[in-house]
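Bench notes, bay 3.
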Amino acid sequence: MAGPDLDAQIKQLDATLHSIEQVLDLDGLRTEIGMLQEQVSVPDLWDDQANAQRVTGRLAALQGEVDRVTGLRARLDDLAVLAQLADEEHDAQAMAEAEAEIVRVAKLVDSLEIRTLLAGEYDMRDALISMCMSASSNMMCWWAAIGVPCSVPLRTRSSRYS
């Protein structure tokens, strides 16, 4: 097998991707794609423009999601094979390529995991946060570090900001 660290990273990515595949329910998505393709093949689909746009938009989104996940699965599987062959052949160049690829795949898996976590019923809505600055001025530094703009007007109410 590949080096223990690389092998462990591949196994971790595999486990994460497997859980994403389960949450997304790829079989269910493929079934829905099949039903939407049947609706798209109906000759009078475009008689109702709003419904046609809804159907074709949903179909494109689902196909994109399935393609994204299956493509990532194929890359991860290829990466495991590349790492194993590089280790067996003691090929430093192939091992370096595998190490570079694992960084790219890890970023994609992490991004997909976040998208999956934020794909619930209410996740497209805005959020409202409230914070009390009297606790620590270090909080403002933390909020600034994660990208919350400090120029957002705050309304003062007693000793709390909201």
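Next record in the batch:
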Amino acid sequence: MAAKTREDTLSRRRAHWDILSPSSRSAPEKKTPGAHFVLVYDEPVARGRLIAGVLASVAIVYGASTAGLYYAMVQPPERFGAIMSHVPMPAMIVLPFQPLWMSARGGSLQAGATAPDFTLPRLDHSSTVTLSETLRERPVALIFGSYT
């Protein structure tokens, strides 16, 4: 009686059973009276399927998170800032932030290329300055960088 109880306990703990037809029996069998199929427990297969399922889920979440981050990066700066204020810092460590940023914000200009025309207000807001008009009058050097 104790052996049967232990066997029942072990069978309840098993996570996965495959139903095999009698012609495909290759593992130890557990016979069921009057059944046409045999229940066979294959622990390595069950563990492998569990690991594969977990890895697939992690890959899907990682891919979706990366795509969401890239989508946020191609938004205008105000929208990007609003989205990124809700992203936790560990996500910035795990996701490929720098390659996505270079792709999303890299632009198509190369060093030495002609700058696109633009108009900006003067510091005192008295008028505007257009690059093409200023370039006709004198040479212009555009310098972009951080001065902090």
